[in-house]
Amino acid sequence: MIYLDNSATTRIDDEVVDAMLPWLRERYGNASSIYHLGREARIAIEAARTEIAELLHAHPAEVIFTSGGTESNNAILKSCAGESALVDHVAYSAVEHHAVIHPAEALAAAGCTTTVIPVDAMGVVDPETCRPLNTPRTLVSVMHVNNETGAIQPLSAIRATVPDALLHTDAVQSFGKIPVDVQELGVDFATISAHKIHGPKGVGAMFIRRGIDLKAHQQGGGQERNRRAGTEPTALIVGFQVAARKAVATMHDRASHMRRLTERLARGLQERIPDLRFNTDPERSAPHIVNVSFLDAASLDGEAILQAMDMHGVAVSNGSACVSGSLQASHVLLAMGRGRDEARAAVRFSVCNETTTQNVDDAVAILSDVIRNMRV
Ligand SMILES: Cc1ncc(COP(=O)(O)O)c(C=O)c1O
Asked: What number is the average pLDDT over the span 258-285?
């Protein structure tokens, strides 16, 4: 199988699994227990928190472990506008992941004011459009890297236009791929997840800037400084720590490898497939994603393209949700001004450090055959 869907998830790293196993087998204590077995789990969790905080340029007290990107995004949006009553207006870009859009829509249904921030034809927010959102009672949520197109948002410039608002970024696709420095980005909240960087599924974190009183989104025990109740999953957190350490330490080399592959992929597609449109701008995108659509999309079936690729052993996606067995048009591509057919028949390739040149060349050849066969 040629796996080119690393934006969806990545293969867990063997070193990560090895680091996790003792915390599943022998060192299974509850980190809240006072005896040795519990204390050693507490020490491991706090060491992971300190290291992940350093990687983000944050303070350990600003890092709260969660079950992943979805929970972090939900917690930040819902708590800011709900329990914590920090804001009464939530503004989010039109290309956010559904883990931001859906909680924002739920808040809107409950009476919160919401604003959708538009993007340009390559999916990028113009910071000037954010200027009217600059009030202390507004939460602005703009992702760092888009999961469908790889587009990088100009977060520091956005921050400059909304100095008084609270600013959240979903950094699930950027962490470990490009530098994520919460100080430099100027964000108050950030979301990261382990399984996109060869860590385990079911663990992530949220950065909450010190001094912001974000109340817990779920109640129970007093774990995570009363901000996220629930027994901490020590093995997952240790796995996250090892994956994050490795991703950031090798980021430069991994990113150059991934960039070479995505450039080669884009070149290959351009040479072999006519009437293609690139939805990823290589100058303003993370290194691991290339998204293409087809100008004659009305005569192509998006789902059939992905199925044909799968039959030839290539795992790719179009990034949009599959609802009741049928592919929806991508809200990201629609927001970028693509037509409904084009937004339904896109292909997203996402590579990782384990992807080879041969994988990429094979995928190009297979997609060009698939499209040629569908066009006759
Ligand atoms: C940009 C983005 N945000 C949030 C998520 C959700 O993260 P998780 O799978 O850890 O809940 C994903 C993963 O699909 C993502 O790509």
From this structure: 97
pTM: 0.97
Tell me: pLDDT of 376 over 90: no
Average pLDDT on 173-189 reads 98
Mean pLDDT of the chain: 96
Question: Is domain 14-249 in CATH 3.30.470.20, yes or no?
Answer: no
What was the pLDDT predicted at 325?
67
Active site residue 322: yes
- Higher-pLDDT residue of 77 and 318 is 77
In the numeric block, which tokens belong to residue 263? 């450039």
Which atom of ligand 1 is closest in space to residue 202's alpha carbon? 10
Q: How far is the CA of 70 from the centre of ligand 1 (A)?
A: 6
* pLDDT at residue 265, rounded to an integer: 98
Closest Cα to atom 9 of ligand 1:
69
Nearest residue (CA) to ligand 1, atom 16 = 147
- The yes-or-no verdict on residue 321 having pLDDT over 90 is no
Catalytic option among 80, 112, 130, 322: 322
Residue range 251-375 in CATH 3.40.50.2300: no
Cα separation, 240 vs 204, in Å, equals 7
How far is ligand 1, taken at its centre, from the CA of residue 296, in Å? 30
Task: Give the domain ranges of the chain.
Answer: 14-249, 251-375
Q: Helices 234-249 and 251-272, interaxial angle, to 10°? A: 70
Q: Stretch 66-81: mean pLDDT, rounded?
A: 98
Angle at 193 between CA 188 and CA 195, to 5 degrees: 170
Closest atom, ligand 1, to C-alpha of 193: 10
Q: Which two tokens stand for residue 7?
A: 């934006």
- Predicted pLDDT of residue 374: 95
Report whether residue 70 contacts ligand 1, using a CB cutoff of 6 Å: yes
319 lines ligand 1 (CB under 6 A): no
